[in-house]
């Protein structure tokens, strides 16, 4: 190849890349525009209405601009802070349990044993069930008089447990979410385990490292990005849970299981205060971002360090 051919090739390659990127842009532009229209316009409207006194029972109130009054009322409400407390307890406990059991199940599924494929398939079932169906299903299990759990307790001579009573309601919701979402952690962490360099593990074992040391110093550090991804997604998902909680407990008894999403629903569809509801929603968005941002920042920081 001559020098002129090399120079010409070097000039053509960037031009081809520009043409390719231009084609990608124009092909994705319609979908991006539709997404912006479907998602962006309602967001802008909701942000505007959070500064109004719009109530469905007061015609014309959607034009009543009241500034930050909705936000100050919400932030000064004891019910709002009770919902924050319930949401945090629910998110922290559920995600911690799912992470711990997800690691355990992933380690087990990474081993060779009879029936591993069947066990893996069965584990996926809870994850793919619609949350509304999950709520109804667990309500049947938890019922005080006719529920499956209390029936089983009765067969061994134990008293029925008020699973959906004031004492156990939040724990029952956490158990329900734990059952449905642990497979998600398991799949993500199993993918991390299967990407682990086996030669490194074999070298560590040849140097005398036992199974616990291999897990502590090799496997667990390798899994940190995978755990971070799964935890970030699940924290956002848990804090957005509504349908299965509402179908199971309606947010009760009292406010025992009233998370932020249930609190926003009650404000909008029981009190019909749309302005206040949209303010709750925007505070909720900021709250979720504050909770999930450290995990996302750690993930991107780790990826940046690995590239360099």
TrEMBL record:
<keyword id="KW-1003">Cell membrane</keyword>
<feature type="transmembrane region" description="Helical">
    <location>
        <begin position="223"/>
        <end position="240"/>
    </location>
</feature>
<keyword id="KW-0813">Transport</keyword>
<dbReference type="Pfam" id="PF00528">
    <property type="entry name" value="BPD_transp_1"/>
</dbReference>
<dbReference type="GO" id="GO:0005886">
    <property type="term" value="C:plasma membrane"/>
</dbReference>
<feature type="transmembrane region" description="Helical">
    <location>
        <begin position="88"/>
        <end position="109"/>
    </location>
</feature>
<feature type="transmembrane region" description="Helical">
    <location>
        <begin position="121"/>
        <end position="141"/>
    </location>
</feature>
<keyword id="KW-0472">Membrane</keyword>
<feature type="transmembrane region" description="Helical">
    <location>
        <begin position="279"/>
        <end position="300"/>
    </location>
</feature>
<keyword id="KW-0812">Transmembrane</keyword>
<dbReference type="GO" id="GO:0055085">
    <property type="term" value="P:transmembrane transport"/>
</dbReference>
<comment type="similarity">
    <text>Belongs to the binding-protein-dependent transport system permease family.</text>
</comment>
<keyword id="KW-1133">Transmembrane helix</keyword>
<dbReference type="InterPro" id="IPR035906">
    <property type="entry name" value="MetI-like_sf"/>
</dbReference>
<feature type="transmembrane region" description="Helical">
    <location>
        <begin position="24"/>
        <end position="48"/>
    </location>
</feature>
<dbReference type="InterPro" id="IPR000515">
    <property type="entry name" value="MetI-like"/>
</dbReference>
<protein>
    <submittedName>
        <fullName>ABC transporter permease</fullName>
    </submittedName>
</protein>
<feature type="transmembrane region" description="Helical">
    <location>
        <begin position="161"/>
        <end position="179"/>
    </location>
</feature>
<feature type="domain" description="ABC transmembrane type-1">
    <location>
        <begin position="84"/>
        <end position="295"/>
    </location>
</feature>
